[in-house]
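Colleagues,

For the teaching module next term, I've prepared a clean inverse folding example: a structure given as tokens, and then the sequence designed for it. I'd like students to try predicting residues themselves before seeing the answer, so please don't circulate the second half yet.
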């Protein structure tokens, strides 16, 4: 086996191990609704006496549910996996909604985008809640930003407060990452990208 192949194989092995570790941590930390209430963790019932909050947790929860479900991933070829970022989204998606109302746009890196990360750096992010939230927030934009809107070359602001510059060179790009597929959902839009923003 050549050296570059060994490096790629080691990175893939590290990524799989981190995904399994993160999935296990998420499963233990995720709150579960009692079975008799018929409430999922993605669709909590609002209190009848509470006023609707500014950030709508129902919209956020439903958007997360749509992203993790087959509606979003049906837009990408079967050979493309988004399991790793979906694990990150699960890890931060169980809590409160972001401080903006829906809908949302997610620029979702495919698994191969994380192969560029050194294993130690990725491991540090996975085990640091604040860094994990910052990574996810850097890929989410308030509102529905369609593929056609990206063609206009807009500059968007992520929930992390950093700009995401859209460009069109035969296809859409955001901050240099190519958009390889898009899916419009009921509560937002998902653009699958080939790099981590």
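(Answer key — instructors only)
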């Amino acid at each position: 086996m050549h050296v570059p192949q060994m490096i790629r194989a080691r990175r893939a092995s590290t990524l799989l191990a981190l995904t399994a570790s993160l999935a296990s941590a998420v499963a233990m930390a995720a709150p579960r609704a009692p079975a008799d209430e018929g409430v999922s963790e993605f669709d909590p019932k609002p209190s009848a006496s509470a006023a609707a909050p500014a950030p709508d947790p129902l919209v956020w929860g439903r958007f997360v549910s749509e992203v993790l479900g087959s509606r979003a991933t049906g837009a990408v070829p079967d050979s493309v996996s988004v399991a790793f970022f979906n694990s990150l989204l699960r890890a931060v998606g169980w809590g409160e909604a972001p401080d903006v109302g829906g809908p949302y746009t997610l620029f979702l890196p495919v698994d191969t985008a994380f192969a560029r990360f050194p294993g130690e750096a990725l491991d540090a992010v996975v085990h640091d809640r604040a860094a994990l939230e910052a990574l996810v927030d850097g890929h989410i934009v308030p509102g529905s930003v369609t593929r056609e809107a990206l063609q206009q070359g807009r500059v968007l602001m992520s929930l992390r407060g950093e700009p995401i510059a859209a460009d069109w060179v035969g296809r859409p790009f955001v901050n240099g990452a190519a958009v390889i597929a898009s899916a419009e959902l009921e509560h937002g839009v998902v653009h699958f990208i080939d790099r981590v923003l």
